[in-house]
Design brief:
Layout: E1 23-25, H1 27-33, E2 42-55, E3 61-71, E4 76-78, H2 80-88, H3 98-113, E5 118-123, E6 138-139, E7 159-176, E8 183-197, H4 199-207, H5 216-231, E9 235-242, E10 248-255
Length: 269
């Protein structure tokens, strides 16, 4: 972790430089959470990059939106500041085509993650087709709760004996960067089948992350495993949509029964 550029003053490269990418071993946080092996979930980290640009063969700037899917079985997660610096290195570099840029990014991200990463580049001509959406489910945020303790507290979670299948959402998730302690703002969807989870208790649990320092991907895995351990649902999905920083947003999806959803861009993103 000491080798990361995160939290340090660095310059911006003006030419394409894949060496800027840095990975963080997923095992570090998974060992701390005591996740079992094999993992109790599958999933993907969905990244959107809104500041992708390069020069065409005539020196004219091209803009695009990047979308990539990093499998959670990869050895490393991609550190976000290094990702930003890497994308900035394209700004004054010349490439012959969108396909060349896409191929380079896919190869470089796969090398950093340690497993094949899927990359899409959305050209300007397709921007008008991108729409805002919302997370489905019952919104917890209108519940009239009181919070006294903001230490992360999985012990808050509790269930009744009633069996339900439901989807719950909240936009009140906030955690902080593990290194810089800058705030990370997110929305979260929890879909499950099993004993009914107390809604107020769940909302308090999610809000208890407010002072917690951990990367986005690690927070979602912690939420998944805490709910799985304390509430014991037979089916569980946890999907978070975080607001962007440096033109990048990270959206971790973890589930033990369903495939990742279509990328849903929320109003705050």
């Amino acid at each position: 972790m000491d080798n990361l550029v995160l939290g340090k003053t660095v310059g911006y490269a003006d030419k394409y430089d894949p060496s800027l990418l840095q990975g963080v071993p997923r095992s570090l946080s998974r060992n701390e959470i005591h996740l079992p092996n094999p993992l109790p979930f599958e999933g993907v980290d969905i990244w959107n990059g809104y500041e992708l640009s390069w020069l065409n063969s005539k020196g004219k700037p091209i803009i695009a939106i990047l979308r990539c899917f990093v499998p959670i079985s990869s050895a490393n997660l991609i550190e976000s500041k290094s990702f930003k610096l890497y994308l900035n290195s394209f700004n004054q570099s010349t490439f012959a085509s969108v396909e060349e840029v896409q191929g380079l990014i896919q190869n470089d991200l796969s090398g950093c993650a340690g497993q094949s990463v899927t990359v899409e580049i959305i050209e300007y001509s397709a921007f008008s087709s991108l729409q805002l959406g919302d997370l489905p489910g019952i919104l917890l945020d209108n519940l009239d709760i009181s919070m006294e303790d903001f230490d992360i507290s999985p012990q808050l979670l509790k269930t009744t004996d009633k069996y339900v299948e439901e989807t719950l959402t909240s936009h009140l998730l906030k955690s902080n960067c593990l290194i810089t302690h800058q705030p990370d703002w997110g929305s979260v969807l929890i879909k499950y089948a099993g004993k009914a989870i107390d809604h107020e208790a769940l909302l308090k649990y999610l809000i208890s992350f407010r002072l917690h320092n951990e990367f986005h991907e690690q927070c979602v895995e912690r939420i998944f495993f805490d709910i799985l351990s304390h509430c014991k649902p037979s089916k569980l999905t946890v999907y978070a949509r975080y607001t962007r920083r440096g033109g990048l947003d990270i959206n971790p999806f973890r589930s033990n029964f369903e495939s990742p959803y279509t990328d849903i861009r929320l109003a705050r993103q």
